[in-house]
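queue> pop job 88
queue> type: inverse folding (structure -> sequence)
queue> payload:
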């Protein structure tokens, strides 16, 4: 959960699913109807804010039909398609954690997540 304090009242934001392994987050996934790619950036911001010291390597946004897999550190989409793009759990365990999120980036990520979660 991420608590945002940018509006009139604090707002709690949650992701749909966090996959853990070996004591760390491996993947943050979320479901929302509609355009998958329009939500990638907000989910990446969420992952960086929820796990600033050890972000998960990937985020996964889906609408149930389409899936987008995004690298958390670069925010770059690495796969798009159906459920076949989901990385196997064993591959997630082998993927190293990205470096900690720089403190100056956290304020930017909070604003991005606030804009996406409140509709602007």
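queue> result:
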């Amino acid at each position: 959960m991420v608590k945002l304090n940018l509006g009139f009242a604090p707002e709690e934001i949650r992701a749909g699913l966090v996959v853990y392994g070996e004591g760390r987050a491996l993947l943050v996934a979320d479901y929302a109807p509609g355009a998958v790619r329009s939500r990638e950036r907000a989910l990446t911001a969420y992952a960086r804010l929820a796990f600033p010291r050890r972000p998960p390597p990937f985020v996964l946004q889906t609408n149930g039909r389409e899936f987008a897999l995004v690298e958390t550190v670069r925010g770059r989409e690495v796969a798009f398609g159906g459920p076949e793009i989901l990385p196997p759990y064993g591959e997630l365990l082998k993927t190293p954690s990205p470096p900690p999120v720089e403190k100056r980036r956290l304020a930017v990520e909070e604003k991005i997540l606030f804009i996406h979660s409140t509709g602007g």
